[in-house]
Design brief:
Shape: elongated
CATH architecture of the largest domain: Sandwich
CATH topology of the largest domain: HSP40/DNAj peptide-binding domain
CATH class of the largest domain: Mainly Beta
Strand content: 35-45%
Distance between the termini: 78 Å
Order of helices and strands: EHEEEEEEEEEEHEEEEHH
Structural class: mainly beta
Helix content: 10-25%
CATH superfamily of the largest domain: Urease metallochaperone UreE, N-terminal domain
Largest sheet: 4 strands, mixed
Length: 281
């Protein structure tokens, strides 16, 4: 028996315990799996307790075929009940909801399979199998009222590393002199910044070591306690849709001034032919 239980990324990072419920088949407690209200069970008189009967069919004159099939009087159980249990109706089992505790360890990977022995469907006719819980990650929701929601709630996980996209304005990416404080999953702060004059290219990636996921102790041998992966930050630069007339003229004039002094002609430096004008038709 297999079920899937999803928990937020924060629980994978810090470790947590959750209660979850499943509905499964259980042996009736009232009759203890006998199906009888008074505990008396009789041997089926039609099959003699075998649960199977043999019937003979005539295929043609003098030609017969014997077929073995389940007894229709006892339902193949080999026993009959005079006074069925009032709780299970003589079926010996019933559907019930059970509660289990799920322990999520720090750094445990998504898709991890946790086994609960003999917690699957029960029956008087067999030993209960195992309940297997597949651990999944719950998607973060923007509109949820989670008191623990932080920047880290929206991190994306890949193995030991966490991923985040930080948005910068054109001024910040071009001129620097900015600071960002990210709140991690456990509440501590990660500082991102650039001094004045240091640029950031669109799509540039910064790796912050030790700010990723904790390494699960059950993942590999000889893993040191409190070993963490990295936080990978990708910078996204947002350009303005348009500029005011006065600002556009000032920026253009400044750009042209420095372009003439130290500018680079990418087309010329790449060996491409100069753009030619089109004649009038």
């Amino acid at each position: 028996m297999e079920v899937r239980v999803s928990v937020p990324l924060r629980d994978f990072y810090m470790g947590a315990e959750h209660e979850f419920q499943i509905e499964k088949q259980q042996i009736c407690e009232e009759c203890e799996g006998s199906g009888s209200a008074d505990g008396e069970v009789d041997t089926c008189g039609k099959c003699g307790g075998r649960g199977m009967v043999v019937q003979k069919h005539m295929l043609a004159p003098g030609i017969f075929q014997q077929v073995q099939m389940g007894c229709d009087q006892c339902g193949g159980k080999g026993q009959t009940i005079r006074r069925p249990c009032k709780v299970c109706g003589g079926s010996r089992v019933m559907r019930k909801t059970t509660t289990h505790v799920l322990s999520v360890e720090k750094g445990m990977p998504k898709g991890q399979r946790l086994t609960y022995e003999n917690e699957a469907d029960e029956s008087p006719d067999w030993v209960a199998g195992d309940l297997v819980v597949v651990l999944g990650e719950k998607e973060a929701e923007l509109e949820s009222e989670d008191p623990h929601r932080t920047d880290g709630t929206f991190f994306r996980r890949k193995g030991r590393d966490l991923f985040w996209k930080e948005v910068l304005s054109l001024r910040e990416a071009w001129l620097g002199a900015w600071t960002r404080n990210l709140t991690h999953l456990d509440g501590h702060t990660i500082h991102l910044s650039r001094p004045r004059g240091e640029t950031v290219q669109p799509g540039q990636v910064e790796v912050v070591k030790g700010e990723g996921m904790p390494v699960w102790l059950g993942e590999a041998e000889h893993v040191e306690v409190d070993t963490y992966g990295a936080l990978v930050v990708e910078y996204v630069v947002v350009l303005p849709d348009q500029m005011e007339g006065g600002m556009e003229k000032e920026v253009w004039a400044l750009w042209e001034k420095w372009r003439k002094k130290r500018g680079v002609d990418l087309g010329r430096d790449a060996g491409r032919p100069a753009a030619a004008g089109h004649g009038e038709l």
